[in-house]
Amino acid sequence: MSNLIDTRTPLETTHLPAQFVGREAEQDALNDAFSVEDESCLPNFHVYGPRGTGKTHLLQRFLTTFPPTFTTCYISGIHQDTQYKALERLYQLLTGTKLGTGHHIADIQRKVEEQVTLPTVIVVDEVDFLLLDDGDDLLYFLTRLENTAVITVSANQPTIKDEMDDRTYSSFQPQHLTLNRYTPNAARQILADRARKALQPESLQRDALTYITTTTQNISIGLTWLREAVETAEEQINTELVQEVEVAAYHKYVRMLLNRFTTHHRRLYNTIARLEQERDAPLTTGTVYREYSGRCESAGVAPLSERRISDFLTHLELLDLIEASYHYGGPMGKTREIQLVDWNSHGSEETE
Predict the structure, then answer these.
(1) The three-state (H, E, C) secondary structure of the chain, written as one string
(2) For domain 9-15+182-255, which architecture applies?
(3) Domain boundaries 24-178, corresponding CATH code
(4) What CATH class is the domain 261-340?
(5) Quick one: pLDDT at residue 335?
(6) Staple 120 to which of 71, 105, 155, 235, CB 3.0 to 4.6 Å?
(7) Would the pTM of this model clear 0.70, i.e. be above it?
């Protein structure tokens, strides 16, 4: 551990601070919406905000504000990316026990419904990943439960009406809450507060923090960048140092996102990065798949199907790691052109 650090925890992206800087209005909006006398009429919500705007922390903190007369549950659409996995996790949260194997979805739904005896608030984070599979069926079931509020969270869709069947959206009918990107000043205030709690006094120069927060207002990237600078610094963190570790910090952020997925996701991302170094972007799905397959064979690993890799490309797109443009018509029908999201025109680095 760097000798500049008193305690590392406030610099972790998973750390849940006691107070949220710059999100007071959003907290008030949620509190006001759920301050209803009739607990059988809890509102549904869809919360949208780009990555690094504090959605997950806001909702996790919000769930802790309910009294014991409520049940609260948090589900991640990344880790529970099918209806079966989400229901399985929901049952575990409601009962404290895991389901055995071999259950039909209708059976788990019945078991979950039996456990919803108190007013219940269910947060479905990263809902976009669930909606790639059978998340629509899951949301229809959840929104039909009595005394239950469903809060979906997305980094990609301000509204998910177009992603749902009409019957599901009619049952859902959410209120909307948008978390806009932080301003550089707000981002600086957040990182400065974390730094005060984590670092020795006078370890961080003001100009260094200003450079980080004028370059990115994604708090997850900012924290990763600050932590990389802290771990590299010998005496003090200055602007020259944060510029020096900028690329490495971004790639650590990428690895952090991809570590929630499979080795094939990481190999696919590295394939795109390597191809962009070797040839002009954008790249077609076919080109990426051929190169990915070759890298798998070189590593002695069986490549996944082209259809599965197409799904994984969509995952990278939802993570804001690649940009894709779609073209229709022509001899190949629908084609997708891909390139990495530009990080100040920096080069790429292996993330496996």
Answers:
(1) CCCCECCCHHHCCCCCCCCCCCCHHHHHHHHHHCCCCCHHHCCCEEEECCCCCCHHHHHHHHHCCCCCCCEEEEEECCCCCCHHHHHHHHHHHHHCCCCCCCCCHHHHHHHHHHHCCCCEEEEEECHHHHHCCCHHHHHHHHHHCCCEEEEEEECCCCCCHHHCCHHHHHHHCCEEEECCCCCHHHHHHHHHHHHHHHECCCCECHHHHHHHHHHCCCHHHHHHHHHHHHHHCCCCECHHHHHHCHHHHHHHHHHHHHCCCCHHHHHHHHHHHHHHHHCCCCEEHHHHHHHHHHHHHHCCCCCCCHHHHHHHHHHHHHCCCEEEEEECCCCCCCEEEEEECCCCCCCCCCCC
(2) Orthogonal Bundle (1.10)
(3) 3.40.50.300
(4) mainly alpha
(5) 80
(6) 71
(7) yes
